Structure formats: C-alpha cells, structure tokens
Amino acid sequence: MKVESDGITCNFDKKSGFLTKVNTSKTEISLSNGPSLAGVSLDLQSFKHFKAEQNYVVELSYAKDKNWFKVTWTFIPGQPARLDYQYSQRGEADFMGISFNYPEEKIEGMKWLGRGPYRVWKNRLKGNKLGVWEKKYNNTVTGESWQYPEFKGYHSDVQWVVVENKEKPFTVYSENEHTFLQMLRPEKPKNAPNDYTSPAFPSGNISFLQAISPIGTKFNSAAVMGPQSQKNSMRNYTPVKGTLWFDFR
Questions:
Q1: N or C: which end of the chain has fewer CB within 10 A?
Q2: Are the beta carbons of 81 and 248 closer than 8 angstroms?
Q3: Ranges of the chain whose pLDDT falls below 50
Q4: What tens digit of pLDDT does each residue of 159-214 get?
C-alpha cells in the first residue's frame, strides 16, 4: 500500500503494517521494518487507512499475550510525516520503545540535538552535555580501536537527529522528553570471554526508546551492580505514548 504526500511516497506492507521504503522524486530511502515494538513480537490486529480532510491517515493495531501496540501515521501537506504511538508491555525488558531498520552500509554519519557526544547505558548516563553534535560513522570497539567518540550505541535526550547516508539524509524530530536514540549495534569485542560488556539491543538498528540496557564490566554482569543496573519494567502497565516527525523531503 502506498501513501503519497508532497512528492514523497511511503510504502507499507499490509501483512505486517510496517513501512517498507520511502521514495522521493529522485531517490529511494531504505528505512523499513517498522515501527515495531522493540524486543516484542506482536500480531497485526487491524490495518486501516483513510483520507481525513486534506490529510491521509494510516492506523495500525497490534497485540499478543496482554502486550499491545498502536500506531497512527498522519500525512499532512506541507509537513513531515507524523507518527503517534502508544504501547503497554508486560514483564521485565532490556529496552522499551520502537524500532526501524536501515542498511548499515549506507549510513555515513549523524547530527543531533541531545546529550553528547558519547553514547550512554542505563547505568552510565552522566557526563554528556546538551547541544548540537555531529559525528561520522565508525566501527570503534572499546579497547580494540581508537576512533572516538564511538558512533554506534544509545544516545540520550535526543530531540532531533539527521541520519546522514548515501541515499538522502532524513530527519526525525521527537516531541517527547528523555528519548533515547539507538544508532546501530556495537560489535562484541573479539576476545571478550563473556557478554558482560555487550548489552542487548533491539533487532532493528535505528530505534527511539524510553528505556535502554545497562552495561556490566569485564568481570561482572550488570545484574549484580545495583538498582540502576537492573532490567526495565512498566509501572502499573500505564501505556507509554510518543510522537515522532519524519522529514524525508
């Protein structure tokens, strides 16, 4: 299913409800496989799309085992595509939020307004400053290579991000405070005897999250390192709501 607005075409898979790609008048943007609820497999319950005055709306609903996820895309002439979402998730989780896929080999860098320039973990949030930051793609593995700051990982309090790539840069704006951006997944150190310093990440590689993973040390897992190093859970299962704007123009 295709939705066209301002010369931009967003393509959706009717079986999953996910965005499959975006086409502009000159190129293709390979953002796909989302939004999915990060770390949770859900069944598509309904897929609705309709015109609302001058706008076009796509509504998606997912559920399974008391977990649920609702998505509304609104395409407004003259504005970026608006994505509203809400979810309720049961049990403990390494991370919570929504996720997309984008080919790593096409990513060249990013520019963002948030806390930087370094990546963060749930139990290592201090030290970064709020500002506009920019860094080029690198594949630095801490202790093995030395191009800092590391490009891959979680970034905190992100208000907008420009994903620089070989196709066409696109910008995502967040209306929510304390949004974490996952930019790709760091590689595990080659000689690490365990996974203590390789925390879990969503299967997607560009994610917008409300909760992220803690990290351990060379000798200890995060689970034994105190309250800030425990997994995440929803308090009273109160639904989380979020709004993102995707500018592909």
A1: N
A2: yes
A3: none
A4: 999 999 999 999 999 999 999 999 999 999 988 889 999 999 999 999 999 999 99
